[in-house]
Specification:
Beta-Lactamase; five-stranded antiparallel sheet; alpha+beta
Amino acid sequence: MAQALKTKASEVDIRVDPNGVVDRFPGPACIVDAERFPLISNAHWQNLGLASPGDDACLPAEFAASLLALSHTAQPQRLAYDIPGAGEGDGLSFDFMLLPCTMDGAAASMLLGFDRTATELVQNALAKDREFHRSLALCSGDAVFELDQSGRFTYVGPNGFLGYADFELHGREIRKLVSEQSAHASELIFTSHQSVSGSEIWFFSQSGEARCFILSMVPYCGSDGEWAGLRCISREVTGQRILEVEIRDTRNSQQRIEAVLHAMRTEARPSTMIAAGTSTLLESIDISACIVVHADENGFDRIEAYAEVGGDMSLPVAPSMDNPHLLDLCSHICRQSEGGLCTGEIDGFSVMISPTRYGGQINGEVGLLRGAANLGGAQDEVWGESDRHLLRAVAGQMGVAIAQLYMFERPLDGKS
């Protein structure tokens, strides 16, 4: 049965009029003989300036090579042929099919051309448009990526994200990279079916550092028309946020310094200056107590002022004016500082002390105590730079007040 079908198939012979095919073909068409000379051609072929019947010109080399292959294989050949134009984009592009045929009983070849210029222009325009938007997306943000419905990365731009290479994030869930402070916001953003613009999210980078990004996202749909995920452009603003915090802390620190100094300068007596500064200092920052101590050539001898947050701390001995326990501890800590700001511990409370000076000589010290509930690490880590800045500024004014106290007020008290 199979052999019979094969025999019948080989005997099929389709006969057409070559002249009619060439004449009615909607594109350029030509029939050439075995020597590759044109026998007949239509107007479309002749408009291209290709060799035509009766011309001395030869077919382009590309045609000659394909016709040679056709003669050897007797199999249809496909040839892409471009005709350059006068300017960029003015050229024409054709696909030619070379088919074996017979002409007046002699072997010949039929060349049929299909104009693909318009298709190629559209494809090139689409490719350029796609590359334009891709380049625009890459340069408009620090990272671009795509998420599926479950919030997993399906595409990451060549720049990567959060220190990860693009391939390292494929399939990972973005919410696993979000810091705790942005966890709630991320739940809303990464499940949104609407466009999202200017959302601020904190992430953890590959190295574990907190990094802040501004995200803008648009949803996209799958082949079924249903919501399939989000496409995102992100811009890192970590440096800006850190700078904003530093500026805010500096401004707050300056306001606290001004509040303490103002409270002291509004008082007339040195003792009330010291008391006002101590109580204002206690209200200005998160501390448990504040202490001001006088010193003479023999060392620290008297507590001039003391204020504490009610119920926040409990020293083993009440801070009387000549409390030897506190005076000894303050002296010990201050000696370690070699005349500068220092930190230490008093009965489980972190303390930061700055000497006060007048006329270049140490005449006392100001100490800040922070309760054990506020301790988070080593002594140096308990006190921030804004705390140190505040204490240095206040210590200068306290030194003047202590000097005035012993030059003017104490002598008068003794006489009275």
